[in-house]
Known about the structure:
Layout: E1 9-11, H1 13-21, E2 26-29, H2 33-37, E3 45-46, H3 52-55, E4 65-68, H4 73-84, E5 91-93, H5 96-102
Parallel strand pairs: 1-5, 2-3, 2-4, 4-5
Amino acid sequence: MAFFSNTTKTLSPQEVSDLVGGASVHLVDVREAHEWNDGHIPGAIHRPLSELATWVGNLPQDKPVVFYCLSGGRSGQALSLCKSAGQAVEGHMGGGISAWRMQGLPVTRD
């Protein structure tokens, strides 16, 4: 099932929060393990950009995928690389978890 159009979306932290809260997307954190361990968005899946070659073909397909990183750079790279590989991805969160935290949204260390 493809959920995306030919355009990719840069979503705000609030938009992502609403989508995650409604369980309507898979949120994928592309930061490295030490960054993930310092705190991540509840419900996110951890897939480091440095290991993209091992997971690019195994993204969930039942809901749209949205990437995030620290500030938006790596999530944009993941988005481009996955789209180039033919994977169904929706977009990424502009400003990353830094913007998420600035808006006072929840972070976990589970």
